[in-house]
């Protein structure tokens, strides 16, 4: 197996583009503890809006903003279904994901839309620098948002909804804001991916929630999530590492491109099982040391008694 620097560079670039999606998944998965499957639909919504607007000669950056707004509306609908409609969170996300399939088809007007050869931020030079700046700007903005009153209320909603309600906070509003913001970032990532790949496809969002979860879990296993700063950084790093691992796995001769979903599932399983095994081994080691200390102290007391 041999891998070139171009493959690694391409994987890092893709990882950064998907990092915004990972940040969105981090908000619902870790902060709100909300099982949001809207992601699979809102990612495509972002790509579809961007592709249609760019093909109609709108500015690519304006298309990105519109894509983010579209994702936020989709997320707000999921939040409303859960908080006001009293529908289970998982079911709300599934219903919205199904609805978005038809909406995305309406936006695209066809199963896919090509924007190949049209000017966009990813068609020029210094693409990597541009992507790093964009991702860092959104990371810093998210970090700062989490320190505001509504950001703190959002974090508290995920930790203990009943307690934060007793302090007078409206958890319905914080849930809607959180899910909306999450899907806005996911849709923005979809818009970037559509521009980078040169097309938007109705199936481009399938499996995005699993990739987002994998990025968050891998990043946390490596960097931890002691503070919001480290947790958001972990999501970005996890997204990059996930793409590098996939690129390396696809270099193995007996793996085909169609095995990508299998590789993703294996990576997520390893990322979930490894920290648990690590904790279990540490606990066993501590218990063994404690037992040895107790036995030594017991032996010394017995000698003293003689």
User: In order across it, which strands form the biggest sheet?
Assistant: 1-2
How much strand?
under 5%
Strand runs, count: 2
> Uncertain runs with pLDDT below 50, 5 residues or more?
none
Explain the overall architecture:
The protein is mainly α and 306 residues long. It is built from 11 helices and 2 strands, in the order H-H-H-H-E-H-H-H-H-E-H-H-H. It is 77% helix and 2% strand. Helix 1 packs across helix 10, helix 9 crosses helix 10 and helix 10 crosses helix 11. The relative contact order is 0.18. The mean pLDDT is 86.
In short:
The protein is mainly α and 306 residues long.
Describe the structure using short key phrases:
306 residues, mainly alpha, two-stranded antiparallel ribbon, 2 strands, globular
